[in-house]
Design brief:
Length: about 100
C-alpha cells in the first residue's frame, strides 16, 4: 500500500483509479523524471501499469508469474485484496502480453 501511495502522488492518480494499480512483489518499478521532476511517460513497448508513468524491469514472463502468485496468495488469505472486480492483468499496458 505504501508503494501505491507513492505512485498515487507521483502520477496524480485519483482514489478510484488507484484501486486498479497492482504492485507484485519482487518486480522493480522505475520512474524517470524530467528536470522539473515531472514523471516521463513510459517508452514505446515498455510494460507499465495503467494510470502510471513508471515501467517494470523484468525478465520475460516474470511479471506474469508474480501476478499469478499474488492472486493465489489473495485467495488463501482471509480478506485478501482480490475483490473479483476484474482481472489484475487488465491494469497493465505495453507490448508484452500477460495472458
Amino acid at each position: 500500500n505504501t508503494l501505491r501511495g507513492f505512485m498515487q502522488v507521483i502520477d496524480g492518480i485519483n482514489e478510484d483509479d488507484i484501486k486498479e494499480v497492482s504492485m507484485p512483489s519482487g518486480i522493480p518499478f522505475v520512474y524517470k523524471f524530467d528536470p522539473s521532476m515531472k514523471p516521463l511517460p513510459p517508452g514505446e513497448g515498455k510494460l507499465s501499469q495503467a494510470h502510471t508513468s513508471g515501467v517494470f524491469l523484468e525478465k520475460p514472463g516474470l511479471l506474469k508469474e508474480a501476478l499469478a502468485k499474488n492472486e493465489e496468495w489473495d485467495k488463501m488469505v482471509p480478506g485478501g485484496s482480490s475483490s473479483g472486480k476484474g482481472k489484475v492483468s487488465s491494469s497493465f499496458r505495453g507490448s508484452t502480453s500477460l495472458t
